[in-house]
Design goal:
Blueprint lengths: L1 E3 L5 E3 L2 H12 L7 H8 L7 E2 H14 L8 H21 L9 H10 L5 H6 L2 H10 L10 H10 L13 H12 L6 H13 L3 E3 L1 H6 L10 E5 L4 H16 L3 E5 L20 H14 L10 E6 L5 H4 L17 E6 L1 H8 L3 E4 L2 H8 L8 H13 L6 E4 H15 L3 E4 H6 L26 E8 L2 E7 L4 E3 L1 E5 L6 H20 L6 H10 L3 E5 L1 H7 L7 H29 L9 H4 L1 H5 L5 H13 L15 H5 L12 E6 L2 E6 L19 H12 L10 E3 L5 H13 L4 E2 L2 E3 L13
Helix pairs in contact: 1-4, 2-3, 3-4, 4-8, 9-10, 10-20, 12-13, 20-23, 23-26, 23-28
Length: 741
């Protein structure tokens, strides 16, 4: 029987060669018998079969053998896939050795082809690139399970325009590390440090960073947030900025609470304003028209205040009944809720809706520009004003609309604005109106302003005063692989420097993003592998031990992050807006009851040396990157211990990470968990997180209305800042790829 090799040569089948490949895959997994693969392969042999076909059959058989009883087959399949990648790369790059070829020629060739940015070779010498190439650890490919390696190779490694495999997984990690170390004084050593934490799968960087670092167009940030002014220029300027962000693969959050409501006046003409819905539909159309690098539609979350007159229309945007002209099915709505509304819901009280334009005209202030007690005073003054137009409605009726939409669509996202602003360490420099597409980012915001437009000799010049245009730079610590305090500190120290470097090494789609990013130098350190950590520690989700572990682990992560930021500040300087912040005054530490000797010493060091980053901690969902790392997503519980994912022409069985007899009973599935325990744990974690968490609720169709309401009340009472999706067991919702970290 003849087979056809990858180089198109024909030769006689020698089964011993195939047997060596099979044994290569099963090495280190004695529970996986090579004979099982050999027997499964035999019926597929035919004269003229290609070695590529044989390899694909082996991989498919190994994948399909994955089960709760035999989870190791997914690692066998990953090793067989790595073998396949090695063979393809050797053929594409024309080298003889099995595995990884010379690194420098690959960098040089991809640079010539315009797939690597010239800046890599302009900065690193050949000797440095050779040294880093020699530092690559090919054996770390065997840390991947099948879905992790396949996701990385399909979506992130660089291929030629003809689809040839060029970059292998460890070379990808080194390329990202080299980019993020470009401006370090000892760039080679820092590139090695960054490579180690990435390739050991102890942390992941955000999807845009993993995909775009080392490339010519290196947009590295996940998400952006804009504030819309109540004028045509502001509305369309936000739309244009959203288009640029989406074009370069970023997600978007947009706050529209300043826009006048339907029926408001325009230049004195009463009842002519169309309200927020037409503008939301504009943003909806931009999301469809300007996709994210051709991979998926643009993604945008739109936030509106609960007191805005258009909030009832807003809460029906994605539901399946009502006037379709008032729908926007492709955006993700989020509602901004103050404490006083939640109190009104609990007390079954009355709520009032206002037009923000009329409030500004009559009261002389923007009610949305305040929070906490100041907001409550202004809100009450609006109620008491004799001529100010207001709509009266039971608070519970609005809450019912929120719950109805959530039950049907998984949204709106919830933003508890007083809780967020109360714990903002930079309230001296502004306030926070809303969050981003994944509800984990909470940073100061303000709209940009048009100063003037002048024209001379046919050249039009527009001057714009930049507002605070939020950018999030994300990475996630993999708690499933970092089990000691020392290991956490080592990884977090690298992460903070990597994310801080993103700010200076980024390609910004719009100038406001760069201005704000360098003013605050905000980053978002997150975590994945949370449920994996609990299961491996044999801690039940629904237990006091869980709350204790969450408190201890997240306090330590926060300590390490602040310490690392302080050390970078010593070296490179504090963020420009540091003066007057709660970092400087020490209020940040006092309000969180950080009172140990270690914390007091760090507090003094921060006051003396500053911190590099205005915000540091935010928990992203990590849907894609946790697959690569082989960990559980974000802080979520697992959907199932075992599930099957359907791909094109294939089914991929998967198990919870490190599933064995010891961890099995500690992987309780999300929809079977009492959500009050999840809320309590989120509240415990929140004390240590200066931004927010992509926190999901999981419900079943059998939940009662009272129980459903109590989840949102409990989240607010426990100090949770935001609620992301409510995942109904009978409803599928789409995860955000941009914010995966």
């Amino acid at each position: 029987m003849d087979i056809i090799k990858r180089n198109a040569q024909r030769e006689e089948l020698i089964f011993s060669k195939l047997s060596r490949v099979i044994h290569f895959g099963c090495d280190d997994y004695p529970e996986c018998s090579p004979l099982d693969l050999e027997m499964a392969l035999l019926p597929h042999f035919k004269h003229g079969i290609t070695t590529k076909e044989i390899q694909n059959i082996l991989i498919r058989v190994a994948v399909e053998k994955t089960s709760i009883e035999e989870p190791s087959w997914q690692y066998v399949a990953a090793k067989l896939l790595s073998y396949d990648l090695y063979k393809d790369a050797a053929l594409s790059r024309d080298y003889e050795e099995f595995g990884y070829g010379p690194f420098y020629p690959m960098v040089e060739e991809l640079t010539k082809r315009g797939l690597y940015g010239k800046y890599i070779m302009d900065t690193y010498s050949k000797e440095e690139i050779d040294e880093l190439g020699n530092y690559i650890k090919p054996e770390r490919d065997f840390l991947f399970n099948y879905i992790g390696l396949k996701t990385l190779s399909d979506r992130y490694t660089i291929k030629t325009f003809e689809g040839e495999i060029f970059e292998l997984p460890q070379e990808l990690f080194m390329g990202v590390a080299m980019h993020l170390a470009l401006k370090e004084a000892d760039r080679v050593q820092w590139a090695k440090n960054f490579y180690d934490v990435l390739s050991e799968l102890k942390m992941t960087v955000a999807t845009p960073t993993l995909a775009n670092a080392r490339k010519p167009f290196h947009q590295l940030s996940s998400c952006f947030i804009d504030t819309v002014a109540d004028n045509l220029w502001g509305i369309y300027n936000t739309d244009a900025n959203f288009a640029q962000v989406s074009k370069h693969g970023g997600g978007m959050g947009i706050y529209i609470g300043k826009i006048r409501s339907r029926g408001s006046n325009i230049r004195g003409y009463k009842g002519v304003a169309g309200g927020v819905v037409p503008w939301i539909k504009n943003y909806n159309n931009t999301a469809i028209a300007v996709d994210q690098l051709g991979v998926r539609s643009g993604a945008v979350a739109i936030y509106l205040d609960i007191w805005h007159k258009d909030v009832l229309d807003f809460l029906s945007l994605k539901t399946n009944n009502g006037d379709d002209r008032m729908k926007a099915h492709d955006i993700f709505p989020g509602v901004c809720i103050p404490d006083i509304f939640m109190k009104a819901v609990k007390e079954r009280g009355t709520w009032y809706l206002f037009d923000p334009h009329e409030v500004r005209a009559v009261m002389g202030y923007a009610i949305e520009d305040s929070w906490g007690e100041e907001f409550e005073r202004r809100y009450q003054a609006c109620i008491d004003h004799p001529t100010l137009t207001k709509e009266e409605i039971p608070a519970m009726e609005i809450m019912k609309m929120i719950l109805k939409s959530t039950f049907e669509t998984g949204t709106p996202f919830i933003f508890y604005r007083d809780t967020v602003n109360r714990s903002n360490p930079n309230k001296h420099a502004g306030m926070i109106y809303c969050s981003n597409l994944c509800t984990e980012i909470c940073q100061n915001m303000s709209p940009s302003e048009l100063i003037q437009t002048v024209h001379e000799d046919g050249v039009i010049t527009t001057k714009v005063k930049s507002g605070d245009y939020v950018v999030c730079n994300l990475s996630s610590l993999n708690l499933g692989r970092t089990s000691t305090k020392e290991d956490i500190e080592r990884v977090v120290t690298c992460q903070m420097r990597m994310m801080d470097n993103v700010i200076d090494l980024n390609y910004y789609p719009i100038p406001q993003a760069e201005i704000t990013n360098k003013k605050y130098r905000a980053v978002g350190l997150g975590t994945s592998g949370y449920h994996q950590m609990l299961a491996q520690s044999q801690v039940s989700w629904e237990s006091e031990d869980h709350l204790k572990v969450a408190d201890e682990v997240y306090e330590w992560i926060n300590f390490c992050a602040i310490k690392a930021s302080m050390e970078i500040s010593k070296e490179k300087g504090a963020y420009p807006a540091f003066e007057g912040s709660e970092w400087q005054t020490g209020e940040y530490f006092t309000s969180r009851h950080y009172e140990s000797d270690a914390w007091n010493e760090l507090k003094d060091q921060v006051a003396k040396h500053g911190v590099r980053n205005a915000w540091m901690f935010a928990i992203a969902p990590t849907a894609s990157t946790s697959l690569i790392a082989g960990s559980t997503a974000g802080t979520d519980p697992v959907y199932s211990k075992f599930w099957v994912e359907e791909k094109k022409n294939a089914v991929i069985p998967q198990t919870a990470p490190n599933l064995n007899k010891q961890t099995f009973w500690f992987y309780k599935e999300a929809h079977h968990i009492d959500q009050q325990w999840s809320i309590k744990a989120a509240g415990v974690r929140q004390r240590h997180i200066d931004q927010a968490q992509s926190f999901n609720l999981y419900i079943t169709p059998q939940i009662s209305a009272k129980e459903f309401l109590n989840l949102y009340v409990s989240a607010w009472e426990n100090g949770v800042k935001t609620v992301y999706y409510c995942r109904n067991q009978s409803l599928e919702v789409e995860d955000c790829a941009s914010c995966s970290a």
